[in-house]
Amino acid sequence: MSKMHKYYLGLKELDEAIGGISGGANIMLIGPPMSGKDSILNNIIAAGLSSEEGVIFLTTKVPGESVIEKFSGEGEGKINNIGIVDCISKSLGLGSNDTPSIKRATSPVDLTGIGVRISQFIEEFGKHKNIKDVRLCINSLSTILMYSNLQTVFRFMHVFSGRVTAIKALGVYVVEEGMHDEQTISTLKQLFNGVIEVKVENDSYYMRAAGLTPRPTRWFEYEVVNDMAVIRGVKDD
Known about the structure:
With 237 residues, the chain is α/β, with parallel strands linked by helices. The protein is 35% helix and 28% strand.
């Protein structure tokens, strides 16, 4: 019996506190705007690439080419293990041809098209590249919710969180705190095994994980360096 693969977030102290994440987990990454959430997600993507996992990244914020550029330094060949579902380029009227690493949906409202492209990458990694371990990262669920109602997004997410569980992948979904009412957040939380919470206090950034260990981890202070999150210490209780 082969040992179950564990996923790591690329945040050493937090990873040590969690002890690795079992395949099949879906995690909400939630925090206020301008709190470095995108940088935390960059760590999670980079950790997947450096572990030679497959990474499927749905972007509603920046074109696919910008993502390729950002992560192409992660190691020769490893950038081939990223599949980007670009929901922004076509809606902005930017260059819209697909490439082996970038598949474009018309906009964040095109949930059918988005779903097809995610499925294509999952199949490609599994069947053609023989990549067993995959991360699905969505940045952001909040943008998708701006274009579609909660019920529609919940159904879409239910399918893909179930798919993540079935193939023992890791799903990470960014949510903007303060953009949604409590009912929306509590409805979405039904889909997740755990949460990475981000907060800002006195101009400092903190993160912790809840639901991935018997008790929430401690709050870790971090800062953003070159678009990556760097943990600097533990918050005093």
